[in-house]
Design a protein that fits this description.
Layout lengths: L6 E9 L2 E10 L4 E6 L8 H9 L5 E10 L1 H4 L3 E3 L1 H17 L8 H4 L6 E3 L7 H70 L7 H15 L2 H20 L4 H21 L3 H21 L4
Parallel strand pairs: 3-4
Antiparallel strand pairs: 1-2, 2-4, 5-6
Length: 293
């Protein structure tokens, strides 16, 4: 069954004292795009997170928001360089003695030297934090998929109704086209008789050839057969295939091509109206399938 690319999913998980929450929002896109807002402690895991999402979702613009709470998540990613702090303190005291300043060395003086703090090695979030986050992400993706599938079912129902409506129009067009051939044959014979008169001999073979050429020009059976074939594949795709968006878009283009050919071969007013109506339906379907994964 097809899926919509629009949806929302939320997941929450806890491991030890770590609680992770993930929200996913999805809208339509030609490809898979992921924009992630992550806690600092997970920022270096962004590529891994993208791959996790890619394993479950084929297309769509995904916005991920995550938060992690707990002791590990609240740790400041800095540590004190004790050796540097002692050295600066000793240096400041020597400077105080050298210039005979009475003021004592205070903490605020040491804070002027940024290298008394050093960054802890990042890149490896706490195992419990990563585990909580990935569990929350998987839950969020499952919930997102449920919503996308639900909307996909609604889209499939609407698309099937439109395809079946066009199927009826194709049947009508084909029948009208077949009825027109003998009518045009009689009309051509009448025109020839009116122009040449009864006393002028008519080359029967040439007349039959012209009628055959006219019938071939007016006959849209081949286009109708192809249109029905596209309809069949379209209905099968929306019922049975995941990630069918690109295939459906191709089929709509082919249906539109057949409709244009039918319109150019037929100059009968009822057929022309039916072709216009079909092209309007095809445009509505084309807009709908832009939101299918």
């Amino acid at each position: 069954m097809i899926q919509s690319m629009t949806g929302y999913g939320r997941g929450e998980a806890s491991v030890d004292d770590i609680i992770a929450m993930v929200e996913l929002r999805s809208v339509n896109s030609r490809f898979l795009e992921v924009a992630a807002r992550l806690p600092r402690s997970l920022s270096l895991r962004e590529n891994e997170i993208r791959e996790l999402i890619r394993s479950k979702i084929l297309r769509g613009k995904i916005t991920l928001s995550a938060s992690v709470h707990g002791d590990a998540a609240s740790k400041v990613p800095l540590s004190i360089n004790k050796e540097a702090a002692r050295s600066y303190y000793k240096l400041l005291r020597e400077l105080r003695t050298a210039v005979k300043i009475r003021e004592t060395v205070k903490l605020e003086h040491l804070l002027s030297f940024s290298d008394i703090f050093e960054s802890q090695e990042e890149g490896e979030s706490d195992a419990a934090e990563w585990s909580a986050f990935t569990q929350a992400l998987l839950v969020a993706m499952d919930n997102l998929r449920v919503m996308r599938e639900k909307e996909g079912r609604e889209l499939a129902h609407d698309l099937a109704a439109r395809i079946n409506s066009m199927q009826q129009r194709i049947d009508t067009i084909e029948q009208l086209s077949k009825e027109r051939i003998p009518e045009e044959r009689s009309r051509l014979q009448e025109r020839i008789a009116a122009v040449l008169g009864d006393n002028v001999a008519v080359n029967t073979d040439r007349l039959e050839l012209e009628i055959a050429l006219l019938a071939d020009k007016l006959d849209v059976t081949e286009e109708c057969v192809r249109f029905r074939s596209h309809n069949k594949f379209f209905l099968e795709a929306i019922e049975n295939e995941e990630g069918a968006g690109r295939k459906l878009n191709f089929l709509i283009q082919e249906m539109n091509r057949e409709a244009n050919t039918i319109g150019s071969k037929s100059n009968e007013i009822t057929i022309a109206h039916s072709v216009v109506a079909m092209k309007e339906e095809l445009e509505k379907i084309r807009e709908q399938i832009q939101n299918i994964e």
